Amino acid sequence: MAVEVKVPTLGESVAEATIGEWLKRPGDPVKLDEPIVSLETDKVAVEVPAPVAGVMGAYKVEVGQTVEVGAVIATIEDAQSAGETTQVAEREQAQPVAERPPAPAPALAEGGQEDHTTTLSPAVRRAVLEHGVDPSAIRGTGKDGRLTKEDVLAAARAKKDAPAPSVSAPAPTPASAPAPAETKLSSDKAGERREERVKMTRMRQTIARRLKSAQEEAALLTTFNDCDMSAVIAAREAYKDLFAKKHGIKLGFMSFFAKAACLALKDVPAVNARIEGDEVVYHEYVDISVAVSAPSGLVVPVVRNADALSFAEIEQAIADYGQKARDGTLTMADMTGGTFTISNGGVFGSLMSTPIVNPPQSAVLGLHRIEDRPVARDGQVVIRPMMYLALSYDHRLIDGREAVTALKIIKEAIEDPMRLLIDL
Predict the structure, then answer these.
(1) Residue among 245, 358, 353 nearest 301 (CA)
(2) For the chain, where do the domains classified as CATH 3.30.559.10 start and end?
(3) How many CA atoms lie within 13 A of 24 on its CB side?
(4) Which pLDDT score, from 0 to 100, does residue 168 have?
(5) Are 382 and 393 in contact (CB under 8 A)?
(6) Which of these, 37, 35, 39, lies nearest to 17 by C-alpha position?
C-alpha cells in the first residue's frame, strides 16, 4: 500500500513552493522522518520528511515545478509491499551505468551507490561543473556529509596548487554520461567562449522582487559615520577566553552592535517602527534580523527580544542561525518578523555600502571592514582601527535628525562599551 507524500504547511501566507531537488530516488529505502525532497519557498528551503518508513515510490512532479500546499508530490510504499521495488533497485545498482534509465536527480558516483554526491544542491552542482572536480573524492562538511560550495572551492584550490598528475588518470566517463567539466577544458583550449543559462531559484527571484520593491516604494536615504573600534577590540581580547570558557561560544563583534542597536532603538522609536497603511506601528520590543550568507542567497533569520538577551545569548543565536543557513535547515519561523536589520558586509571585505531596507522594516544598519586609519585625537594624529557605519532608512517615517541620532548612539556605545552596561 502506497502512502502519499504531500506538500506540508509552509508558514503564514506561503501557499506554494518549487521542487528544489529530490533527496531520494525511486526504489531507495526510506526511514521515518528522513528528508526525501527539498522545497524552495520565497524565503527558505524546506526539507520534507518521510511520513512513513518504506521504499521511495514514484515522483508525481519534477524538479523545478511549482506545487501548492497539500499537493501530492510522491508516494512511499510500505516495507511489506516494497519487496519488488527494492529488488528492482538492487538490479539497477548491478547494471552498468550506461544501461540505467535516467533519473531526475542522477548520482555522480559510479555503481549506483548512495553517497552525498546524489544530493548536490544547484549551487554545488554548478561549482563542480565549473571547476572540473570529482565530487565523489571530496569529503562533505554539510549536513549528513553533504557537499557544500565551500567544500568544492577548497578542493578546486587544492587541485590547482597540486603538481600535474603523472601516475594515475581519472576513471573513464561512461558513454551515456555527460562530461561538462572536460568539455569546458577542451573549449577553453580551442579559444571558444561559453555561456551557461541557469534559472533563478525561487528565493533569488523573491529577493530581487523585494529589493526592487523597497527601492520603488520607500524613500530610501543613507547616513554614515565612522567608529573607533579600539575599545571593543580591547574588551574582546581581554575577556574572549573567559567568555568562551563560561558560555561555550566565542565573543564576537555582532553582540556589541546588537546591544548598541537596542540602545539606539529605545531612544529613537521611529527607527524600530514600520508603516502599515496610513498608520505607524511602534514596537516595544526589538527583533533583530541578522543578514546571513547562505548557499542559496542572503537570508535574514531573526534574533527575537534581543533587547532582553545577554551577550552570550545573542552570540549563540547568531551562531546557530549561521550553521542552519549553511546546512539549509532554516525554517519559516526562523525568518518571520524582525523590526530592524544588521548586515555585516565587512566579513567579505566591504569598506562602505548603502544597504537596502528590508520591508516592512524602516531601517538597516550596515557594518563594514575594520582597517587602521590615521585620525586626530587630542590634537595628535594617531592610528586607530576604524569602521564605517551606514544606516539606511525610510525617509517617509524617519526624519534625518532621528536617523543621525540613532547612528550616533550606536557609534558612541561601541566606542565606549560601558554605556551598554549603564544604559546611557
Answers:
(1) 358
(2) 219-422
(3) 29
(4) 47
(5) no
(6) 39
Residue 247 designated active-site: no
Out of 144, 399, 416, 423, which one is annotated catalytic? 399
User: How far is residue 344's CA from residue 329's CA, in Å, rounded to a whole number?
Assistant: 21
* CATH topology classification for 115-199: Dihydrolipoamide Transferase (4.10.320)
Residues of the chain with pLDDT under 70: 11-13, 42-44, 79-123, 125-126, 129, 142-144, 161-190, 295-297, 424
Q: Rounded to 10 degrees, what is the CA torsion of 203, 208, 212, 215?
A: 80
| 288-290 and 340-344 beta bridge pairing | parallel
Under 8 Å between Cβ of 204 and 296:
yes
Cβ atoms of 123 and 148 closer than 8 Å: no
Per-residue confidence (pLDDT) for residue 264, from 0 to 100:
96
Q: 1-106, what's its fold?
A: OB fold (Dihydrolipoamide Acetyltransferase, E2P) (2.40.50)
| Type of residue numbered 421 | L
Cell 524582525 belongs to residue = 338
**CA–CA separation, 24 vs 94, rounded Å?**
18
Any catalytic annotation for residue 283?
no
DSSP for 94-144, please give it: HS-GGGSPP-SS--SSGGG---GGGG--HHHHHHHHHHT--GGGS---SGG
CA 419 to chain centroid, in Å, comes to: 33
Residues 303 and 372 sit within 8 Å (Cβ to Cβ): no
- In the set 33, 188, 267, 395, the catalytic residue is 395
Which CATH architecture is the domain 219-422 placed in? 2-Layer Sandwich (3.30)
In the chain, CATH 4.10.320.10 sits at 115-199
| DSSP bridge partners of 57 | none
Residues of the chain with CATH 2.40.50.100: 1-106
